[in-house]
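To the wet lab folks,

You asked to see what we're planning to order before we commit. Fair enough. Below is the target structure as tokens, and below that is the sequence we designed to fit it. If anything looks off to you, flag it before the synthesis order goes out.
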């Protein structure tokens, strides 16, 4: 697991099961957010924008199916993978879960190792750098396992913050990131940093990327933020 710590929202009302999941996910390097019911889950999903959601079907109050439906309706969360966990083993239930927008469906009792493998499979699609994948954009190659960046034949020297910024951009080329979104993703939610700090590090990243020639691949979108390409 790379140091771009992915966040998992675990929604499970059974405390013992929830703690088993939390323990195993944290051991694998995930940042875990916990919710015990559907209402709390939707609140935390909005606030935290997790990278993936593990969602129990049977919850008090708002059901897992309804939580999944609402998550997938929100533009900011629509692409967030949801793995539905359920004691319902009938095919019709699995189909219903997937039709509601779940990206995967795991039945109880499940193997924690298998569940972790499924989490990583989903993250490989949505946040490849966080699970050690190599990312390519035009002539730029970022290897999140070895922490190396190349442009053409040249290896670039990047500081840790610039590396995380570039990873974020390369996971979603073309996407416009606001300064606030970059602060959340790169610096973390709990750290207070001035938004101007983002501009300083973008400047450093641009300099590093163009050190051996080549166009500046980072685009400033006036009033919105920054994008790659």
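Sequence we intend to order:
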């Amino acid at each position: 697991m790379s140091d771009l710590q992915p966040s998992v929202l675990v929604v499970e009302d059974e405390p013992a099961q929830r703690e088993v999941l939390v323990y195993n996910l944290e051991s694998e390097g995930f940042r875990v957010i916990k919710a015990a019911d559907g209402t709390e889950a939707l609140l935390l999903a909005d606030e935290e924008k997790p990278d993936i959601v593990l969602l129990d079907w049977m919850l008090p109050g708002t059901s897992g199916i309804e939580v999944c439906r609402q998550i997938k309706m929100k533009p900011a969360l629509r692409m967030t993978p949801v793995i539905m966990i359920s004691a319902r083993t009938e095919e019709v239930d699995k189909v219903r879960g997937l039709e509601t927008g779940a990206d995967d469906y795991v039945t109880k009792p499940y193997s924690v190792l298998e569940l972790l493998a499924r989490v990583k499979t989903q993250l490989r699609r949505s946040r490849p750098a966080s699970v050690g994948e190599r990312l390519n954009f035009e002539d730029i190659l970022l290897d999140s396992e070895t922490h190396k960046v190349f442009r053409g034949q040249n290896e670039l020297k990047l500081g840790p913050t610039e590396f995380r910024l570039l990873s974020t951009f390369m996971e979603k080329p073309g996407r416009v990131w606001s300064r606030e979104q970059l602060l959340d993703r790169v610096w973390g939610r709990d750290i207070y940093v001035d938004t101007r700090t983002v501009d300083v590090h973008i400047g450093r990243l641009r300099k590093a990327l163009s050190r051996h020639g080549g166009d500046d691949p980072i685009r400033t979108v006036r009033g919105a933020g920054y994008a790659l390409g």
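Structural context that might help your review: The longest helix spans residues 112-126. The mean pLDDT is 89.

Thanks,
Computational group
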